[in-house]
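Subject: Interface between my chains keeps coming out wrong

I've been trying for a while to get a sensible model of this assembly. When I model each chain on its own everything looks fine, but I need the whole thing in one frame so I can look at the contacts. Pasting all components below, labels as-is. Any help appreciated, I'm running out of ideas.
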Amino acid sequence: MTTISIIGTGNMATAIGIRAARYGHTVEIIGRDRTKARAAVETIGDGAHVGTYGAEPNGDLVFLAVLHQGAVEAVRDHGDALAGKTLVDITNPFNDDGTGVVTTEGHSVTQQIAAAAPPSAHVLKAFNTTFRDVLAQATPLDVLFAGHDEGARAQFAAFARSLDLRPLDTGGLEMTYVLEWAAILLMGLARNGAGWDVSLGAQIR
Amino acid sequence: MTTISIIGTGNMATAIGIRAARYGHTVEIIGRDRTKARAAVETIGDGAHVGTYGAEPNGDLVFLAVLHQGAVEAVRDHGDALAGKTLVDITNPFNDDGTGVVTTEGHSVTQQIAAAAPPSAHVLKAFNTTFRDVLAQATPLDVLFAGHDEGARAQFAAFARSLDLRPLDTGGLEMTYVLEWAAILLMGLARNGAGWDVSLGAQIR
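Reply #2:
Try treating it as a single job with all components included. I did that and got this:
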């Protein structure tokens, strides 16, 4: 059991918090708007608490659950307070109708975050191919992830397993752009018969 | 049971042929090199036969199982002989090290094929997120697909179900570019712990 920190107070922040708390982790919610952070904490329950925006998060694993447009700014707002942390970017840089991404190869949101974060921070992408309601349920589920640093990937994988998720490592930081496209694939499945309870995964013989 | 045609004589052509033949379909193999086509037919067995390159394929469902660089040329070589057919592009336009695609948004290989094919042909992409050895095995498996025309998508889905595959419709022709990225995701999974028996799929509650 560990403490995780979530920067963000929206639906995905709450969904990650609910799942983490249900499996015995302590959840810190960090938002620029403390009223919204308090509301998210109440929704999560189970010992969740409000952290201080801009200060060092309590958790070593810090989820960036803000809109993609604000992710780099949120990282800059915390500056050196994120030194040594493992940052998990969950954002999706969808275009207006969710049919493509506004990022370009080599410049995923995650890669932009990595460029803005302290050099000692490690940056991953995960949970962007899972709808919030699916994630909040306590069913087994695959979670695709990618990112910087073997140790940080192992740390995330262990955390995911503790939530009854099967972590599927897709590779290094350059693969985070591919994960951004994978979310468009998920949208396509949802819109064409699979419905909104679908999640991407893998079959391994 | 139906007849399917496969343009191409390589490993993926053989894998699709083996699976189709195993489930009772008749397989026509069409290759510029008749010797290679004959060899593929022998590998497939079960009534598979060699077709004539450039002539009208016997099947209504025609798989384009050539290298991505030659796919448009193969379609042009057949010209109006492909009128009214459903063409299934299985190619992957990988870059040299399989970490990205050489196509651009709006110009997937499938979209290039659609532009070169007779107007009455419908063009899909499928099987590009499944390794050949996995496909050739008769286990249940998810198959992601996308493409032009509701009717053609339904036709492909019915064929896939007849092979004990679960067809997962991801949308229209524009989604074929997303499927090309999905194959890079598959490569990332294979290289980072999942191994080469992995296949992309979906979890649906």
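Reply #3:
Confirming on my end. The interface with chain A takes residues 99-100, 105, 134, 137, 139, 141-142, 144, 146, 168-171, 174-175, 178-179, 181-182, 184-185, 188-189, 191-195, 197-205 of chain B (CB under 8 Å).
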